[in-house]
Fold this sequence. Notes:
Layout: E1 8-11, E2 24-29, E3 38-45, E4 50-53, E5 59-63, E6 74-81, E7 93-95, E8 99-104, E9 113-118, E10 121-123, H1 127-132, E11 133-140, E12 148-149, E13 153-156, E14 159-164, E15 170-179, E16 193-195, H2 214-217, H3 224-243, H4 247-255, H5 259-266, H6 282-293, H7 300-312, H8 324-342
Antiparallel strand pairs: 1-4, 2-3, 3-6, 4-5, 5-9, 6-8, 7-15, 8-15, 9-14, 10-16, 11-12, 11-15, 13-14
Amino acid sequence: MLISERAYCWPRGIAQSRSEGNLVDMEVSKFSKNHITETIAVCKLNHQGGSVQLPDSDIIVHVPQGNITIGEFQEVSLRAFLDPPPKLNHNLSCTVSPLLEIRLSNPKTIRAILLEMKIGAEVKIDPLSQVMTKMVCLYSLDREGPFQALNNCYVYKDTIQAKFLDLSHVMYIVIAVQAEAIQPPAATIWNYIHKTTSIGIYGPKYIHPSFTVVFVALLKMDHQALVERLLQEAVILTSAVKLGRSWRELAEKSAGLTKHQMQAYEIPYRGKSGDVSAEMMWKPAYDFLYAWSSHNGNNCRDVLQDLQSALDRMKNPVTKQWRDLTGTLILVNSLQVLRVTAFTTSQEA
Length: 349
């Protein structure tokens, strides 16, 4: 999902007073300490209309002037999920946007809303791809579906614009590329599109073991370098979290950092007391590990082997209770074999 701590709201016309209702609220909900804070963008608009944008995203809902009844107010909230319904992803269909939830406080007083969203894919320009596939805006009243295609939808390169006339309190929208059939040599819908894969890794809690399972499917798409990079990032981040204040010992023993050099890593994260809190200590630890790992360049295997050796030499090695690093090393050393297996044809077998 899109993560932020603010919401953007642009009411049309002259700025209104708080009593007139053009204001921005934030509804922040934390799943637990193991998850990232989620923000829902909420904007209250009057007959002058306006726009609501999810921060740090290219998802905007426009309410044209005059589409809200004079004297009425409309509260529009946006929420995005990065986990669209699994039913929409298979050989003939692939989602290329987050699943967007739009909530309207009073849909009976509004005539239309416009959605503008940038997507993560384009249909390839070759004739076969153009004929076999189409970009669709799917709409549902329930998060799990069923979804139906929206007619008032326009695609220009990587931008989708859709107009909604049949409005409900809660609506779910997702963009997908779909094909009626797959024609050899293509094997799935992926062969007809250019898709940008963006993967975010957030701290400070541990990375779930299922994190590498995404990296084993990327192999099938021949993205071994990306798999290695993501594995390395995951291990460095998790190491930083597990180390906490112990990162100083690792920095001294593995890189010979002085006390002054270690303080330089911690200065950006010091609080009002002048110290780095225990909850924030993973951040300077991550900065150090990231810089330290760069001495091996792009060689993921060497980075992870050196890291494991350095952790093993500590007074209280975290590797005693943390076997995931050993497992990751085995996986990295097996990547080439896995890649060859993934691309073995029946004639080669």
